Amino acid sequence: MHYAVAWTLLLWLSIGASFGQGAIPSAESHLLLTQSGRDLYTELAKRSPKALTQIEKMKRNLAELIAQPLQVPLPKDAGGGYTHEQHKANQKAIFEAGVLYKLTGEDKYAEHCKQLLDAYAAMYKSLPLHPEKKEQTPGKLFWQSLNDAVWLVYSVQGFDAIKSYLSPVEREYLKTELFEPYVHFLSVDGEETFNKIHNHGTWALAAVGMAGYSLEEDDWVQMALKGSAADGSGGFLNQLNQLFSPDGYYTEGPYYQRYALMPFVVFAQAIANNNPDLEIFEYRNGILIKAIYAAIDLTYNGHFFPINDALKEKNLTTSEMVFGIDIAYKETGDPRLLSIAAYQGSFAPIDAGFETMAALTKSEAIPYDYNSIRFRDGKEGEEGGLAIFRPYSANSKDDAALIYKYTSQGMGHGHFDKLTWLFYDNGNEVIRDYGAARFLNIEAKYGGHYLKENNTWAKQSIAHTTVVVDEKSHFEGKYKVASAAYPTEILYDVSEPNLQVASAELAEVYPGVKFIRTMALVQDEAFEYPLVLDLFEVESEEAHQYDLPLYFNGQFIHLNSPIQAHQNQLKPLGNAEGYEHLWNLGEAQANAELTQFTWLLNDRFYTWSSQTDSDDKLILVELGAHDPDFSLRNERGLVLRTQSEGKHYFLSALETHGTFDAKNEVTVNASNQILELKLITRGAEKIIQVMTKDSGIREFKIN
Questions:
Q1: What residues pair up with 598 in beta bridges, in sequence order?
Q2: pLDDT for res 447
Q3: Is residue 272 part of a domain?
Q4: Domain that holds residue 410
């Protein structure tokens, strides 16, 4: 406490009765940074001060802020604008100033934290909804209530850390003028979002629950745990039941798994600290810890697989993952997590972060083992899944990953594509998924919102590596239809390291059309690198046009059919459902037996081989048509188009081969091995037969 003069005590005695016995929050810490964390910090400062450079940076940043006037503007701007970014900066300052006071005991940090909180308390009750409010979920400090919830998650931690500095009257002032109305806005005014099974709801209930613990308001805690009615119909526990599969896969996909982890793990840590009897990290067979491990496995080179609405820049170094890794290490003591923490190069300034840093300074880390894994989707694990195949090899040049997506819709952030794939190799995304069309918090680009091209392009099926029927997106691009349908896994088998296979089917994509796709990662002596095999079967009694796009990353080298380039005039490939955004660069008739297309990416060659007929068409496309604001990336693809009646299948393979040494002008194995692809059946067995140049016929059973 920075003062305790007689008049303050008299004032408190005179008004205390009106608040009720025990209504004033105590000075004890209830959240994520306690005396245990401070003790670890003190030990590290003595033993390994270099490990605490992050804290020293926080001190320098706060010194600059303390020397300046407070900036707490009236909310005005949408995401990326001045007021939006200032309130975000203030939430960070409140949090970090609280942390530094807790660690150092220096009053200047607590005073800065207090002044900021007081400034918000003075304005909050009178704030209307944000002038740039989003229609569905408007906020007050920010354009959407999601950002308001994030502000409270961070800021209440700052308050919790300085409670011992504040007098009872000051704590009560912040409670009644800031935190109570804030909690009311999130949980009562925003009841629909608060009880929603969605990451917006997760942030809101984490904010309210953490405020409840810090301010000793059990009603808030119970609402956060069980929903507004405190009957389990909403709340944190129901979120854990509904949003994760039994394997820890988050239904919106890896990008949002990363984002949603923050409120899940910080609130869980607060629950564990205050209600250890709930055994929250053991809840539902340890679902939260599974989710943190899943987030790690859903990456390549540290970056998340960009399915659904995803921005490709996000990786394991984000703050959400830093908190997640540190808390997971605190709960498990798994030394593999320390290698992820070392990659991150930072730690969460909470008890768990200091435990992680203490272990790192003792060199206790061991490498994280990235293996093949399949994540089931849906709360019961029965709504498809995501298979990740990685080579079983100690050879560093086999650093590849095949991702086969046969998940459910993924709620509002899901895309209308089923049975799609990506491929990574040599540190690069080789077969692409576009992810989201958005410039996050860049106000000049539609205020930081998802762009209209997210709906017209990124979510459409032609934007993905899957079969599109009659130029129409899967499920007609209708959310309710897509949400009611999901693939059924037929096979997932990694028991044979040299032939890893997954297969799934979906009958509801188009009326009267059934899809079955089987994908395999093969390691065979005939091939220099792991080989991808792809069998896409389409069952229909009607005649249809089928398009199978391949979005490749690299430089066009060779196509074994002469292509007629459109050199004088470009036209879009179609008129709607994503086709309007693709320039038709040129066309070719497919090879009568095997189409082969080779490209170069950095120092490796890739060849896609596909069984074709001379009536099939090949279309080279480039993204960028009908894009007047130049918002889309100019990526290229090759579309295989066929007209078929009845059953049809696409049989393809992707080879990695050779090297290109630009420095020394040396090229090795620029040509591929495959000469012929065949699908053969022996009884109930399906076998892909591959004729190679140097090793004859190779056969791979895929069911």
A1: 558, 607
A2: 81
A3: no
A4: 373-701
Task: Out of 256, 259, 300, 446, pick the active-site residue.
Answer: 256
Q: Is residue 313 part of a domain?
A: no
Which one of 195, 227, 242 terminates a domain? 242
The model carries a pTM of 0.93
User: What sign results for the dihedral spanned by CA atoms 448, 453, 459, 464?
Assistant: negative
Which of the following is catalytic: 87, 413, 415, 581? 413
Domains in the chain: how many in total? 2
Torsion of CA 64, 68, 73, 78, to 10 degrees: -30
Whole-number Cα distances in Å, 637 to 134, 420, 438, 563, 564: 35, 15, 21, 14, 16
Confidence of residue 6 (pLDDT cuts 50, 70, 90): very low
pLDDT digits (tens, 9 = 90+) for 391-411: 987 554 558 999 999 999 999
Does the annotation count 657 as an active-site position?
no
551 is an active site residue: no
**pLDDT exceeds cutoff 60 at 176:** yes
Q: What is the gyration radius of the CA atoms in the chain, in angstroms?
A: 28
* DSSP code string of 397-463: GG-EEEEEEE----GGG--S--SEEEEEETTEEEE------B-TT-TTTGGGSBPHHIIIIITSGGG
The arithmetic mean of pLDDT across residues 300-308, rounded, is: 96
For the residues 139-145, what does the mean pLDDT come to? 95
DSSP 605-663: EEEEEEE--TT-EEEEEEE-TT-TT--S---EEEEEEEEEES-EEEEEEEEEE-EEETT
